[in-house]
Each structure stands twice: as C-alpha cells, then as structure tokens.
Design a protein that fits this description.
By secondary structure, this protein is mostly helical. Helices cover about 40% and strands about 10% of the residues. It starts with a helix and ends in a 12-residue tail after the last helix.
C-alpha cells in the first residue's frame, strides 16, 4: 500500500500496540480465564509486558498515531510503529494455563 500510494504523495504507516486492558481485550481474557475476576485479568495483561515500570496505556497509542500523522514524520512511510515496550524483541508470551492461574 505504501509503495502504491507514495506516487500520490500519500504516506501509509501502521501501529502495532501492546495489549491494553480495554473492554475488547478483557472480553477475550474472560474467555480464557472465566473463573477470574476483572481485576485479576487486568493484572495478568499488565504483567505480560517486559518494560519494567511501565504499562501500555491508550495515550501511548494515541501519541504514536499523532506522531505518524504529524509533519515530524513527513518522510516516514511504509513503517510499522511497534508500541509494545520491547515485547516483540523477546517474543515470549507467558500466559499460564487457565487451570494454573489463581
């Protein structure tokens, strides 16, 4: 898409966010761990991150979007901005089996 649209001066980028405890994510987590309460599910999502002392928040994704559409990114096209605190560098998702989570 980026290569096709570049001839028209249109930049095409995308953002790959980390999990944020939104209603959509929590609904999915509830299907995996139906016996856990909402607070515990939020805790599981938060603990999967690898960047110590930080959690991905909706504002982090909004700020990334504002950046890629700004003039500061005027020569960036065809880029996937990964906003995951380094998670994909490790590619290690350590969810416990549903029967092992208390």
């Amino acid at each position: 898409m980026a290569s096709e649209q570049s001839w028209h001066g249109i930049r095409v980028n995308c953002i790959s966010p980390f999990a944020i405890p939104t209603p959509f994510v929590m609904s999915e987590m509830d299907q995996i761990y139906p016996h856990l309460d909402l607070q515990r599910l939020v805790e599981i999502v938060r603990n999967v991150g690898v960047l110590k002392g930080a959690n991905c928040e909706p504002d982090d994704i909004a700020n990334a979007a504002l950046y890629v559409v700004s003039n500061d990114a005027r020569y960036i096209s065809g880029h996937n901005l990964v906003v995951d605190g380094g998670f994909t560098s490790f590619k290690n998702l350590e969810f416990h089996a549903p029967d092992q989570v208390h």
